[in-house]
Write a structure and sequence with these properties.
Strand content: 15-25%
Radius of gyration: 31 Å
Helix content: 25-40%
Largest sheet: 7 strands, antiparallel
Shape: globular
Number of helices: 24
Length: 653
C-alpha cells in the first residue's frame, strides 16, 4: 500500500509539472503518449486505493490562467470529458439512444454570449470555472458573426483553432527557435489571449461552434442536432457532426478517421453526445465529467522497430534538434522512418540509445512519435561538435527543457538567410529551394557554400525522402538549378549578399569595370567611391567583402559552375546621377519593374520614397492627391508622366 501511495504522489508531481510546462510555458517535456499512460496509471491507482490527492490532475479540470486579461467565473462550470479508445465502449454508452458525433478540435475553448443580436462577451475556458475575457480578440476572429438575427440572450461554446497551413507560415516567420510554437494549439492559445488584438487579427483564428448552452424562447424539439442547425442559420460555422446509433457509430468513426490526413485543422479525437437533451441532462454529472457525453481517441497503432541513429539537425538559431531515425515501418497507411524527439530532456525521459527496440506511433494519426523505449540503453554520444560546421556545442536549459546548441557564430546553418538571398528571384532565381528546404539540406551537410547547390544531384535519394518532396519535386529542383547556371554577373554579385549592394548597385559596378570580375575583386575603396550612386559606405562594404580571402575563394569555386552572359552596356548613360521614384500604374511598360530596369540601364537609380535627393517622381496621374505627389510638391520635385519619361529617353539618345 505504501509503495502504491508513493507512486501516486510521484505521478501527480510528474503530470502536474508536465501540464504546467505545456499549458503555461508552451514547453513539451513529456510526449502526449507518455502523459496519457501515466494519467491512466494514476487513475487506476486512485480507483484501487480509494484515494484521490487534492492536487491530482484527475480532479483539476485545468490550470489557473496567467495573464493580465480580466477574469470571469462561468455561470456553468465547463467540465472535461471522460475518454475512451474503444468503439465498443461507445456502443455500450449509446444503448438505444441516438447521438451526435463530431470532431474534438485541438484549440482553445471559448464561450460566446450574444445580447440584442450582437456579440456581448467572449470568455476562455480557463480552468473550467474561471476564464479570461477576450471579447476584443474574438471580434477579429476570421469567422465569428458580430451580429446575428436572434435578439434574445444566446450562450454557446466552441473551439478557436489555427490551421496547420497558417501555423507553418507563422512559425516560418519566427527567427528564434525558442520562440517558435510547438503546435497549432499553443499558437492559438497565445493568439487568442493577446493584449493587442491587432496581433490576433493577423493569425487567422477561426471559431467552430460545438455546443449551445442557452437560447431563450427557442424550441429545439429536444434535439442537440437541431441546435447545431439553428446555430448554422445564425451564421456560425459548426464542427462537422453526424447522427449515430450503436449500429452506425463504428462506420462513422472510420469515416472521420479517413479524413484526418486531409484536414487543415488540428483535432485530437471525436466527441459523442446524446441527441436527446432532456435525457442527457437527467443523467447529471460526476465531480469531473458530464454523463451525457464521451470523448473518443483513436487507439494508437503501435509498431515495434529499432532505433538506427540519432540525427542532429542544426537550425539558424544554433539549436540542434535530435531526430530519431529507425527501421522503416508502416503506420496509418504510410511508411515512416523518422520522428522528432524535440530535445535532450525527452531523450533522457525515454533513455534513448542507438540500437534500442522502440515502439512508434502517429500522434493524432498524423505526427510520428516514439511511444516507448523497450530496452532503454540510455542517452549517449551527444555530439560535442556541430554536424554542419564542426564548431563546439553546449547543452543549455531553456525554460524546463535541456537542448543542444552550436556555439560557432559562423556556422552555415545560422546563415540560411544568405543562401535564401542567393537563390532568390533577383539573384540566381532557383525555384524549389525555400528557407525550410535550405535549412534541411544545410543541416544534412548537402550545402556548405554556394557552389554546392550545383551538385545536389549526388544527394538524390536523400532529397527525394525529404518531407514534402518526391521524385517530381526533385526533378523540378534540378532543372531549376541547371537553368540558373546561365545568368548575368550583376545577379551573381547581388546574390553574394554584400552588405548594402542591391541589384541596381551591382549593375552600376559591373558597368564601371566592364564586367571584369577580377577588376572588381581588386578594386579599392577610392575607385568604388568614384562611381556615381555608390558612395563611401557601399564602397567600403564592397571592398571589405573581397578583402576576406574566404569570400574570394568561395566565389572562385562558384564561377566555374556558371555560364556568365557576356554583356556590355552600349546604352548611353543619360540618367547617370539621376534619382527616380515610380508610383501608380503604368501603360507603356509591362510593370513598374520594367520601368526601373530601363532607367537603371541608362545609368539612373530608382528608390522607394520621395526625398530631397529625388530628381523626378514618375506618376501617370500627375494631379493625384497621393502621399508621394504631396511630398514631391512640398519638396519641389518635378512629377512626370510615363510619356514624358519616354520623351526624355528619346531626346537623350
Amino acid at each position: 500500500m505504501n509503495v502504491q501511495k508513493q507512486r501516486m504522489h510521484e505521478l501527480v508531481e510528474l503530470l502536474n509539472h508536465a501540464g504546467r510546462a505545456y499549458y503555461q510555458d508552451a514547453e513539451e517535456i513529456m510526449s502526449n503518449f507518455e502523459y496519457d499512460r501515466l494519467y491512466d496509471e494514476l487513475l487506476k491507482l486512485e480507483q484501487k486505493l480509494g484515494i484521490t490527492l487534492s492536487d491530482s490532475p484527475t480532479v483539476h479540470v485545468g490550470y489557473e490562467v496567467l495573464s493580465e486579461l480580466p477574469k470571469e467565473r462561468h455561470e456553468r462550470p465547463m467540465l472535461s470529458l471522460d475518454k475512451t479508445k474503444d468503439v465498443e465502449e461507445l456502443k455500450s454508452f449509446l444503448g438505444e439512444q441516438r447521438a451526435m458525433l463530431s470532431w474534438k478540435l485541438d484549440g482553445l475553448t471559448i464561450v460566446l454570449t450574444y445580447r440584442g443580436g450582437e456579440l456581448y462577451k467572449a470568455v476562455t475556458r480557463g480552468n473550467g470555472e474561471v476564464g479570461e475575457v477576450i471579447t476584443n480578440n474574438a471580434k477579429v476572429f476570421k469567422n465569428i458573426p458580430l451580429r446575428i438575427q436572434y435578439k434574445g440572450e444566446l450562450i454557446l461554446r466552441g473551439e478557436a483553432v489555427i490551421g496547420y497551413s497558417d501555423f507553418e507560415k507563422i512559425n516560418g516567420e519566427i527567427q528564434e527557435a525558442e520562440a517558435k510554437y510547438k503546435n497549432p494549439r499553443n499558437l492559438c492559445s497565445g493568439s487568442v489571449r493577446q493584449l493587442n488584438n491587432e496581433i490576433t487579427a493577423k493569425r487567422n483564428v477561426r471559431f467552430y461552434a460545438f455546443s449551445l448552452v442557452q437560447a431563450e424562447d427557442v424550441d429545439f424539439h429536444n434535439s442537440r442536432m437541431n441546435q447545431m442547425e439553428w446555430l448554422s442559420q445564425q451564421g456560425f460555422e459548426t464542427v462537422e457532426y453526424h447522427a449515430v446509433t450503436k449500429d452506425t457509430i463504428e462506420a462513422e468513426v472510420m469515416k472521420f478517421s479517413e479524413k484526418i490526413a486531409e484536414n487543415d485543422f488540428p483535432s485530437d479525437g471525436l466527441v459523442l453526445i446524446y441527441d436527446d437533451i432532456a435525457y442527457g441532462e437527467s443523467l447529471g454529472q460526476t465531480s469531473k465529467f458530464p454523463r451525457d457525453s464521451y470523448a473518443f481517441k483513436w487507439a494508437d497503432e503501435l509498431r515495434e522497430t529499432q532505433l538506427l541513429e540519432i540525427e542532429w539537425s542544426p537550425s539558424r538559431t544554433g539549436l540542434i534538434n535530435p531526430v530519431a531515425i529507425f527501421a522503416p515501418v508502416e503506420l496509418e497507411g504510410t511508411t515512416v522512418s523518422r520522428a522528432s524527439v524535440h530535445n535532450i530532456s525527452i531523450m533522457e525521459e525515454l533513455a534513448l540509445g542507438v540500437g534500442d527496440k522502440i515502439e512508434v506511433y502517429k500522434a493524432n494519426m498524423i505526427i510520428p512519435q516514439i511511444a516507448k523505449n523497450l530496452t532503454r540503453s540510455g542517452v549517449k554520444d551527444i555530439p560535442s561538435s556541430c554536424p554542419v560546421c564542426a564548431g563546439p556545442t553546449e547543452i543549455r536549459k531553456v525554460s524546463n527543457a535541456k537542448a543542444l546548441y552550436c556555439t560557432n557564430p559562423d556556422c552555415q546553418a545560422k546563415h540560411v538567410k544568405a543562401f535564401s538571398l542567393f537563390v532568390s528571384r533577383d539573384a540566381l532565381n532557383i525555384e524549389g529551394l525555400s528557407e525550410a528546404t535550405l535549412e534541411k539540406l544545410i543541416a544534412r551537410g548537402c550545402i556548405r557554400e554556394f557552389a554546392d547547390i550545383f551538385h545536389l544531384e549526388q544527394y538524390e535519394n536523400e532529397i527525394i525522402s525529404l518531407e514534402g518532396f518526391g521524385e517530381k519535386s526533385y526533378r523540378n529542383l534540378i532543372a531549376s538549378i541547371d537553368k540558373a547556371r546561365v545568368t548575368a554577373l550583376p545577379k551573381v554579385l547581388y546574390g553574394l549578399g554584400i552588405p548594402g549592394i542591391g541589384l541596381a548597385n551591382a549593375k552600376v559596378i559591373c558597368r564601371q569595370f566592364d564586367y571584369d570580375i577580377q577588376r572588381m575583386i581588386e578594386a579599392s575603396e577610392e575607385e568604388l567611391d568614384e562611381i556615381p550612386g555608390v558612395g563611401d559606405v557601399l564602397a567600403k562594404a564592397f571592398a571589405d567583402y573581397f578583402a576576406d580571402g574566404g569570400h574570394v575563394e568561395r566565389l572562385k569555386r562558384l564561377l566555374p559552375e556558371l555560364e556568365i552572359l557576356k554583356e556590355k552596356s552600349e546604352a548611353k548613360q543619360i540618367f547617370s546621377g539621376v534619382n527616380f521614384v515610380i508610383t501608380g500604374s503604368v501603360k507603356h511598360f509591362a510593370n513598374r519593374s520594367e520601368v526601373k530596369e530601363r532607367i537603371e540601364e541608362l545609368g539612373g537609380k530608382v528608390t522607394g520614397s520621395v526625398t530631397s535627393k529625388t530628381n523626378y517622381l514618375i506618376n501617370n496621374d500627375v494631379t493625384s492627391a497621393s502621399s508621394k505627389n504631396k511630398k514631391a510638391n512640398e519638396l519641389g520635385v518635378p512629377i512626370i508622366s510615363e510619356e514624358q519619361l519616354l520623351n526624355m529617353i528619346e531626346e537623350g539618345r
